[in-house]
Fold:
Amino acid sequence: MQAPTRADYVKVYFTLFGYFQQERGKVVHCGHPFEYAEEVLIVFFSMMAIRRITAFKAHHRWLMRHLHEAIPLGFEQIPHRITLARRYKTLAATVQAFIAFVGRWAEALGLEFDSRVLIEAASLFKACGPVWQVRCLS
Structure:
């Protein structure tokens, strides 16, 4: 069995986000319409988090240097770093709702995805020293 590629993960993200949008319904946004879709930015910011690229200037530089990867993600043109920063701030509520949706969706896959047991890895948060902890909440 072949290991999944990055393109496979991107397809899964877009598929799950499509299901999420169907459940959520149409969201009304006042003002000028967005040039970059929510799902494109969420997938992009997820990729950058995995690569540990956190600065918006570095996000922009990465997109400029990797045009062959930006186009399959759904970017028709490369957004400015300020656009990335502004949209990142506005996506927080959508990302939280999407994570909750994926959790509910994954519960049906098997007992190992049951939401009554939560395992939290604190490795995403900066620690004061070489501390790494896993807490099991039940």
